[in-house]
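Q: Could you fold this chain for me?
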Amino acid sequence: MQLESLPSRSDHVVARRGADAVTVLLDTSSGEYYALDDVGGRIWELCDGSQSVTDIATALAAEYDAPLDQIRADVVELLDDLAADGLVGA
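A: Sure. Below is the predicted structure, expressed as structure tokens.
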């Protein structure tokens, strides 16, 4: 996933955020479930196709106390994993 990419959630994925801040994703095409922690769930929410990877990392840096470079690397890593599983596109 490139920093200028505009990640968007795949249409065949249903997401629900639980009371314990875990976001559960169901890929309706494969029947597989995925669990995202609080930060991963926030990244998922921000993948609306209108924000770049850089925009997402910048938003997270404003919300969480961590260096932007580390957040950017973590966002790219998660989005690469989600894209590999067909859960997001760019």
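A (continued): The first strand starts at residue 8 and ends at 9.
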